[in-house]
Amino acid sequence: MITLQDWKQPPASVGMSVSTIDTPALLIDMEAFEQNLAAVHQRVRDAGVALRAHAKAHKSVHIARLQMLAGASGLCCQKASEAQVFIEAGIRNVLITNQVVGQGKVERVARLATMAEISVCVDAEIQITQLGVAARAAGVHVGVYIEVDIGHGRCGVTTASQALALAEVIASYQPVLTLSGIHAFRGSAQHMREPDARAQAVAFAVTRIREVIAMLADAGHHCPQVTGGGTGTYELEAMSGVYTEVQPGSYVLMDTDYASNIPSASAPALRHALFGLCTVISQSPTHAVLDGGLKAFAVDLGLPRMVLPGWTVKSLSDEHAVIVPEVGAPPLQIGDKVRLIPSHCDPTVNLHDWLIALRGQIVEDIWPVSARGALF
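The structure assignment produced for this chain is given below.
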């Protein structure tokens, strides 16, 4: 019997054919996922650095565990509440690649430090002071990374002298706070299409990081780790001789924006593993309408792309996608199911409660989007 609570259940069950999955749903092609996972981890291992997988891309405990089994040194998260989800699930090394501000948030970090090795990023004295007071009150240790702006124009100090000033404040809170190293990430570089442009961006970052490390060392501050990079540039940071750790996140899923990058000759090819599944709910000679819109796909980097050749997404509204055919496109009928590739995987995943893992055309597993809504 159908109950009023059925809408909270997954849109599929293990063993089900993809043709019977309720929609809209997010699918994971397990063959592509596993290929991406193995290829990137191997490339980073070959370069002799660590890979700390960024969990903000998938927000899934199941995917995080697979990344750890593949050799990840730990996870990155963006918020204290997001870190809590993964720590409570058994992940024991988490870096919050963000500034944590506010008493409630730093106290949460201190509580998490009783369960796992946790570290955070800072770029101002007040962040260190709040964190240090909370760590002392809880009797715990928290690692601190000084964030350096390497050209993104978002968070981070811009000079070596600013970094040194923060290192002195961190030192004043020993042993509850220690300097773990430098965090240097440039999000905009991940989406530079040409390999040479990405290489120049990382070369600029390396120069700035060397200046910071040198000034810190001269003042007696050891900088054991340099972490950063993402799916678009991880290979460059891994081979830089400066970064000790890279932070790809989207690599296991991929989206149309990352697929627009021209890869370097040595980078492993990555496949699309994340797909939206929708049903045709209306059809006319000029267009068809799908049951997934803005509440199923993020569009900050463009509209999703149809997998079925000959069809293009024209527009999205709250609950609908209007798709239009080219001449000779295969016909669609009401009830047909189609796949779309999201333009930006991270915010698309955050719109869904479940990831449906497929092996071929059969549902192999169902994974909750465990950290969905963990925004604070």
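Interim note for the steering committee: The chain has two domains: 6-28+270-368, 30-253. The chain has a mean pLDDT of 97.
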